[in-house]
Records
---
Amino acid sequence: MNILLAGYNLDYDLIKELRDKCASTQDLTPETISAAYARISRSPKPVNELRSDARAEVEKARKSNRNIVFDMGHSSVAEHAVFNIDVIGASRLIIEEIEKFRLCSYTEKSQRYVLFNKDFVIPEEIMQAGLKELFTDTVGMQNDYYRELYAKLRPHVFAENQVLAENPANKSLLEGWAKEDARYAIALATETQLGMTINARNLELMLRRFAALQLVEAQEYSNKLYAATKDIAPSLIRYTQATDYDRLTRFNLCMQAAALAKKYPPKAGVQKSPAVKISFVTPDADIRAAAALLFSASGFNHEQCLDLAAGLTPREKKALFKTTFEHIQAHDAALRELENIDLQFELVMSASCFAQLKRHRMATIIAQDYDPGLGVTIPPAVCAIGQKKQFLEIMRRTQDAYEQIRGKAPLAAPYILTNAHRKRVLMKVNARELYHLARLRSDEHAQWDIRKLSDEMLQAAKKIMPLTLMLACGKDSFTALYKKTFPHI
């Protein structure tokens, strides 16, 4: 066996500096890696020699890529070309659209740790509708209150956590708790930045999808992303224009849904949703999870495993799951067999909470637009310092501005809404992913809003599948739960 380093990402400014110093005429492109790896399946040469050949003949490598990726349809070859992208000066609203792409990596400027200034995006739609003054006055009001709120929350947080406050090393932590509650007052128009790692296949998809979005900011993002990458890997990025499928499908669905709602009005009293509701779960979840465990550990077919699992006594069933979890630790992923068990949740959450939940991209997350009719989430600390009335007044004035903007520039109206505003989300997870969600979000270090949501999801799910979720909890609770489950170990 021989393991060779084929490449790794470098800062692009360094690449340009090295290229200028050596006066290289050769294109420095990740396309050669894609071309070399594409040839592995049909060439007897060692892969390091294939890479050498591709570097020596870049145009030939590009021709090979175009043939293999686009003519033959082997798009996975493009995944070997990887880009690191700086996204600067984008709104929080558009960042949500960017982070919908699940097979990428993101690190975002955090409103939990950074104290934001009056930096915000003014959508072109707002300018064209003659609403700039209304928009900037409202966002300015939100930002002034955000600063005022932080100044009042900071001493409250330190006073409520005196033991932690005694150690100067915890200053940043405690200030972060104040910032994360103050941020509920600022708008989705708030300007932020993002570091993104993306392969060429997903880059092409992102360009095409953003080209189809009607928001001007989305169009600008698509155009600038294409300009930054098109010359680096032209053989892997071809189909970047919006298609009718991307442009029209969701719009047409909205039109049809509106027509159906008019014809068949929803029943009165059904509109209000609880924060957490299980809308679907795999029937006989514990039995099916047990069958999956037996399937991987035996030579039986799945039907035989289902029969066996269904016939187990409660004690035998529990013993099977205890064997599964006996050696698991807080950092371990649950076995893949648990991916056979699905749960679908209907959730109502704030923008602050959704900003964190959307990072669980292996789950299926379908989100509606923000809906002021769902109310707002008020941080408990805001109430504790006597700011509930003032907070709600800011929300009322925001609502007034939202309604005015929606009348003239409906697509841009969500920009004015705050991190406190809510939306409905349909989220499908498997039991294994729920373990991961709970470890991270039900932990004491998690932000209170998403921790509350995660706790409620876990509580509801455990009632249905107590054995499958035997050790599902936050990292901080794992040791205690493990000892309770395995008292003799």
---
Amino acid sequence: MKQIIFMIFAGMLAASCMNKWDKEIVDNDLYSAQDIDDPTTTIQNIRMQYAAAIANSSYTPVTTNQIVEGIVTANDISGNIYQFIYIQPLNTDGTLDTTEGGIGVGIKGIAALYSLFPVGQRVRINLNGLYVGGYGQSPRIGMPYINTNGAMRLGPMTFEMMRTHIQKIGKPRPELVEAREVTGADLSANNIVKMTPMLVVIKNAEIKDAGWPYAHWEVGGDTYSEYHDIIINGAVMKQLLYTSTSATFAGDTIQPGKKTIYGLLNRYSSSYQLSLRSLNDIIELK
């Protein structure tokens, strides 16, 4: 009898421990910093402060506690964006500010960033110990690395740095994220700094290469990322839509007809570059 009572008690204790552990995982995110102070600056101020490094596609270390806050608008959910999330500034009511571009935040060591940083997740970042700069003049936060050509570039931060420098604030609120509607006229050289990177929507558009895959063009057995023209109200925006061969939809066929197209509007040097977050960003119009 004593043995039976002991076994029941042990089982209750084990269940209690499991429930407590489950609760701790939910309440205390093991992949998020816990003690980052309130923001001390804005994304726009950081972009201005490090404008030279961004424009030169170089990088500069941050050596003081400069804390920014933003909301996630794009991540790696389909593989078309790799090792980066993109955040944009918030309005005072917590909604997305669509008047200014955001900044890329590079993180490596995690295969599915979207599971930690879904669209609508507010994040707070202490830049002290990280680097701010650019790649193709697109602003980003991360750490330097050596590329295959032996050149130093600004790439993603390590998993360990993410855990101590990025704090998730509250639960994801995707309803606060609104894409900025853009037209062909908006995509001028004068606007490229202000409008990238930014979540946008293009209405009544067509993708010129209907019938072809988004990527996976085979050349000698190799596959390549691909650019496609987008037609907006009759105007052709050359090589605007970019798709990586790593995208889960890379081999899907582009459908003909008018569409509403959402995506991350970024830049590479003097050219705009629109990346779909997933194929859900394409809405076919009847």
---
Amino acid sequence: MRVGLFVTCLVDMMRPRIGFSALKLLEAAGCEVTVPATQTCCGQPGYNSGDRASALGLAKKVLAEFEACDYVVAPSGSCAGMIRTHYADLAKDDEALAARMARLSAKTYELSDFLTNIAKLESVPGNFQGSITYHDSCAGLRELGVKAQPRALLAKMPGVSLTEMPGAEECCGFGGAFSVKFGEISAAIAERKCEGIRAANADAVVLGDLGCMLNIEGKLRRMGDEKTRVLHLAEVLAGDTEDKF
């Protein structure tokens, strides 16, 4: 199957290793992977801020870049959720465009969901050794139903022990523009999340969205925690947890 990897603009700019890890996992699952070089943003920031015109422009760009693929996969529940859940709303005034967007949305998946339910990946390349706790990012959990999938993939790693944190399904406080517009509320939510992470007493907190990762890691460090690692699920599954990209 021909899979288009939507890297996401945040991964591209802030932690490209996640993109390489996702590529490695898709290839391990036997996929023919294409990574359109012109891809940028899914349009979510504009959409969430009420700028429908720019969001629609970016959605049309994504459509043109990925329409020919059998599937579209993103290492982000947030971006996959934008394409799968909200593109229909952006295209609702154009019947022909809406039909094309519906087809794109139907074949778009968050990485762990795709690997578990479509590619049915039997084993993973990574050999992480240690204890982890898992944070359920809001968009992946609530828009796409991503909950059991990452845990099922981590269970394929004999060196990993999973300890559930208190409030694993609660928001980390990021929410994109929310953390900018409502900084004090965001910081309080992040602190509660980090207290839950520390209560799990794990070597690392693992999750599936880079925005949440950056927010959580920053808060942990400001709270004096220099020990707990903050890793993307793709990095752990692919064995890319050391700084080499």
